[in-house]
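All the exercises in this workshop are built on plain-text protein records. Sequence and backbone structure share a record, each on its own labelled line. The question running through the whole workshop is how a given chain folds. The record below serves as our worked example for the rest of this section.
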Amino acid sequence: MKQFIDYIPLLVFFSIWAMDERVVSIAGYERSVGGIFSAAEFLLVASILVYGTMFLVQRRLDKFQWITLIAVVLFCTPTIIFRNTDFLKWKAPIVNWIFASIFLASRFFGDKPAIEHMMGHAVKAPKELWQRLNTIWIYYFVALGTINLIVAFTLSEALWIQFKVFGNLILTFAFVIGQMPLLAKYMEVEEEESSESTGEDSV
């Protein structure tokens, strides 16, 4: 559910970008809607609304949500003001490299690597495995940031945006699924322990 909510601003961004540019009149105020710069405006507004609402409801945002929101504001604002998409093209690479830095730093600061903080509540795996997965995620974020940079500055605007909205999601989903064999036996153990506990409680 959380991942879907985080994805809403990007869906808004893609929907507006895909529209043919048109002038919309609301209460006598005319505004051009459609195209990349209009999409950047909607991405900015949608992100503030979505994360602002989440903050009001939850009274908090996690560090990755804060980074995403701040990045949207920092990269969308100059894109809109200067009518230059180069600013927006740097957003995904830099955000992914910041995530990689957080995962790297978590190896040296704190009692748990970042990936264990994210998934440890659901899977009770040994520390060695969490460290291994954390390292894998560091490489993944570095690679994903580099891929986003190459796509943004070498391919067409249409391919860049399609990759930005859908390509990253597909790659991340496939990457997560690829780690399931490493975690599967620990998930099974936890499910068995939970079932045994439920059985004992019912006696």
